[in-house]
Amino acid sequence: MASKYIDPELRSEEAFYRRKLLISFIIPGVFVFLMWLSKIVELLFETDLSHFGIHPLSTDGLSGIILSPFVHADLRHLFNNSLPLFLLSVALFFFYTEVALKVFLYTWILSGLFVWLAGRSAWHIGASGMVYGLASFLFFSGIIRKYYRLVALSLLIVFLYGSMVWGIFPGLYENVSWESHMLGFFAGIALAIAYRKKGPQPPVYEWPDEKNEGEEEERKGDGERGRMGEN
What we know:
The protein is mainly α. The protein is built from nine helices and no strands.
């Protein structure tokens, strides 16, 4: 009959990771909720919030650096950004807990700021800059750290969102802010480099020194021979 005993350490470790995962849902969940709330307000009041987007090198478009991720052209645009943003953000907060909030905020601000500085003269809306920034950070951070668990996450990002890379090139998609994609992508790379020594690091394994181990065995052998001589 199989034993029902469960190691308390394994139980506590499982509870820890379950709690960590639930906590990782909070900020991404609130952010995505606000994105949908903005669209609901637009639909209910039959208004257009595009003027809260980013208009490069314009004082009217400065507020868009913060507000543009909450404004989307339509429900399809909103859904296409919501799911990857939520999943990538949860992965960020789960695997990079120590630096996750800073990386999330800097991705938000830098992707918007770069578009304001270098984008075309048009209204840029949506959270795609953040999506590309987070995907870029998670991919390059895992590679830079050379930590197998994070490299596995990097490969998963490529598998799920590898096709996103085409969005950084101009002219491939109509009515799409490729600048947001490209500049968000670069922001993610910059943050991966800036935070490469902070957060999770590959474990360091200590191997016994062969020389010291040989000396210790020799001392043990001398001791045993001494005891045999005394007998």
